[in-house]
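Customer escalation, tier 2.

The customer says the design service returned an amino acid string that "doesn't look like it belongs to this structure." They asked us to rerun it and document both sides in this ticket. The original structure tokens are below, unchanged.
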């Protein structure tokens, strides 16, 4: 006896049309119906904005491990005055219990780097970031960030998915779901060398959103070289005809199975095959930077051993940005977690990324892309003002800094502050949910309206939280 799927009748309208005398007409009807269905839920369909967008795309530069804000962008003279002494306040009842424990386990540690004001805006940047300092008048600092989770796994989950313990869609997946891509031959979401640990694939995954909204990845952040490629993308002319026939046959089988089961995972596989076939015609040339001039490669630091890896990644980000990808995520390896050896570690790490990031800003600006591209530089949390061990700093989710640049944000502007020692966000506090709401707003999306029904409720990136930080909008 023929088995019947519980959600699909034995004889569907489409099945009836296919098996009647009107078979040829049914074929045309089926193709037309599939086009309508595809357009209704396609990553390449025209976006529906909730309001006028300020940016078309986002490049998120993720510094994995926890950059010290008090050594980078948030100068605290009190650290010099009280260096080596105990933190002079105990009123941390409003902070996480684990963080209160950390506050009592060390003495204040002064910063090694000198801070100076830069540009006409006079923004404070330490000499740890000499190349970025030249762009002070193009940056928008948020110095009052705070988030959940004192562990890397929790905090990395928050910055990438808005949740510190549950499996949820990543920010890029939500952007793909809401806006699609400008280029039907490329995915809406690309992750260049994503984190291999602290959540791994969840940091670029789609969770319960349709599977095709997950990122296409290039390499992983633990790579020792600048080689960032998309696996199994290459194709040869001799293979193309046979491969095309194979894909057509697989597509017919998969779609027939999907019509019977309505399984979203099958739909995701179908779409991934279709996208992979289209990408073979454009992506190999897109990720091949050999045709970039030597001067452009040098702009990104690719003429220096220390900067070539991250320079390559930033250059790929510009190329994907130019080609119409909506959300490009670029990650460093897990290198910023200096519980000890802070000066040595942060010096080496900043050297590796400072010039490439500066080159990306320069390149986008001269190509006119910074006008409609939002750059977000972030890390999962900051570091404590108290010392850990001999010369390190512990995790600090209670107060840290991110910066933005490009479309939609004020230039040469600083928002919010931490306390006088840089321990916790104090004025104009901005939670990670608020940052996510603001990013979506700049893209023309109301974070409260971008929802997806799953398990009986409507989910959104910001859960039931989040306020747009209007003060930073241009």
């Amino acid at each position: 006896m023929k088995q019947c799927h519980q959600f699909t009748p034995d004889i569907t309208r489409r099945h009836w049309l296919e098996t009647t005398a009107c078979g040829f007409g049914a074929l045309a009807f089926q193709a037309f119906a599939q086009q309508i269905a595809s357009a209704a839920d396609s990553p390449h369909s025209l976006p529906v904005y909730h309001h006028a967008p300020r940016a078309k795309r986002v490049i998120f530069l993720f510094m994995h491990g926890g950059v010290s804000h008090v050594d980078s962008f948030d100068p605290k003279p009190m650290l010099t005055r009280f260096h080596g002494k105990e933190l002079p306040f105990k009123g941390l009842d409003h902070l996480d219990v684990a963080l209160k424990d950390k506050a009592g386990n060390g003495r204040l540690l002064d910063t090694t780097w000198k801070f100076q004001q830069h540009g006409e805006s006079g923004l404070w940047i330490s000499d740890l970031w000499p190349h970025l300092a030249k762009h002070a008048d193009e940056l928008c600092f948020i110095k009052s960030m705070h988030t959940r989770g004192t562990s890397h796994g929790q905090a990395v989950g928050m910055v990438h998915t808005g949740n510190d313990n549950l499996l949820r869609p990543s920010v890029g997946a939500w952007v793909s779901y809401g806006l699609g891509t400008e280029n039907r031959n490329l995915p809406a979401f690309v992750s260049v060398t994503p984190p291999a640990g602290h959540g791994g694939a969840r940091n670029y995954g789609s969770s319960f959103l349709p599977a095709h909204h997950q990122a296409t990845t290039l390499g992983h952040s633990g790579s020792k070289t600048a080689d960032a490629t998309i696996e199994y993308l290459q194709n040869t002319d001799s293979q193309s005809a046979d491969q095309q026939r194979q894909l057509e046959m697989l597509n017919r089988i998969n779609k027939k199975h999907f019509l019977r089961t309505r399984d979203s995972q099958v739909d995701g596989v179908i779409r991934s095959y279709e996208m992979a076939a289209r990408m073979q015609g454009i992506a190999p040339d897109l990720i091949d930077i050999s045709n970039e001039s030597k001067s452009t490669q040098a702009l990104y630091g690719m003429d220096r051993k220390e900067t070539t890896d991250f320079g390559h990644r930033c250059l790929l980000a510009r190329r994907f940005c130019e080609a119409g990808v909506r959300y490009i995520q670029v990650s460093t390896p897990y290198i910023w977690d200096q519980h000890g050896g802070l000066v040595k570690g942060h010096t080496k790490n900043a050297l590796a990324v400072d010039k490439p990031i500066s080159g990306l800003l320069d390149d986008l600006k001269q190509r006119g892309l910074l006008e409609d591209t939002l750059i977000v530089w972030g890390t999962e949390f900051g570091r404590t003002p108290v010392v850990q061990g001999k010369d390190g700093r512990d995790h600090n989710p209670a107060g840290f800094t991110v910066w933005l640049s490009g479309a939609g944000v004020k230039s040469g502007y600083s928002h919010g502050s931490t306390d006088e020692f840089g321990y916790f966000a104090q004025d104009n506090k901005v939670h990670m949910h608020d940052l996510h709401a603001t990013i979506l707003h700049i893209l023309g999306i109301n974070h409260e309206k971008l929802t997806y029904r799953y398990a009986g409720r409507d989910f959104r990136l910001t859960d039931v939280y989040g306020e747009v930080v209007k003060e930073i909008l241009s």
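Tier 2 assessment: The sequence is consistent with the input. The first strand starts at residue 57 and ends at 63. Residues 1-9, 16-44 have pLDDT under 50 and may be disordered. Sent an explanation to the customer and offered a walkthrough call.
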